[in-house]
Amino acid sequence: MTASVKTRKFMTNRLLGRKQFICDVLHPGKANVSKADLKEKLAKMYNVRDPQCISLFGFRTQFGGGKSSGFGLIYDSLDALKKFEPKYRLIRYGLQDAVQKSRKQIKERKNRALKARGLKKAKLLQAA
Fold first, then answer.
1. Which of the ends of the chain has fewer CB neighbours closer than 10 A, N or C?
2. In sequence order, what are the residues at sequence separation of 6 or more whose Cβ sits closer than 8 angstroms to the Cβ of residue 25?
3. Overall pTM > 0.85
C-alpha cells in the first residue's frame, strides 16, 4: 500500500522565500511514512528541483493510525533555507554541524552572566 499526500492551507510567503502548507498523509495499514519519502512525493507534486529545499516537521499520527498531519515548507533556494530555518533543523538535515559544548560550560557561562550587569554582561555573552 502506498501513502497519499494532500496539502491544505497552502500559501506563498515571499518575504521568507518559501511556500508553506499543512501536509496530510493517508497511510492505512502502515505505522507512518518517512520524511524522505514525503519529500520525494512533494518534490514531484510541486516541481521542486532540489528535495533538500523541502522542510517537513511536526508530524503527528491521528489516534487509531492511518493518517498523519504536519507542517511543510518549500524554500525557493537552499540559501533561503539556510537563512530562515532554525539552527536545530539545519543540523537535523545535515546542512550545519552541531557545536559540541559541555553542559557544565554552558551553565557556568550562564551563571557568570547572571552576576554581571551592563557592559560586563555584554562582554561575557559575546566572548563565547
1. N
2. 3, 4, 5, 6, 32, 33, 38, 59, 67, 68, 69, 70
3. no
